[in-house]
Amino acid sequence: MSDLGELIFRVADEQGEVHVYQDARLRYLTFGNQVEQSCVDLDRPACLQHVYTQAMLLALLLVDGPRDALLLGLGGGSLARALRAADRGIWICGIEQRAAVIDAARAYFRLPDDRRFDVVCSDAADFL
Question: What is the pLDDT of residues 103-119, one digit of tens each?
Fold first, then answer.
């Protein structure tokens, strides 16, 4: 058992390891180490757990009713869940270069699954 809890998922791809840990109601995504890439509170999945992700959403205060959002790097989908909770009508496109991360986000992190949320498996620089 690690400091992040029990390892509940592990897969390797050409870029390394993808791990999912669970400790009580918190679930963590890491890339084969103890550095948190994403965290979700399973009781409150739309509530952002990291200060830097909370700060990123401050931009919403500057825009009146954003219609779309482009997320470069999806991870566990924290920003996607929070955006969906803040505005059900916003169109979200998440770009993630690792299929293993997308699969983990869908299976373990309650990634939104609706017609206004697209996930593209691509390098962000290539996508742009």
Answer: 999 999 988 888 999 99
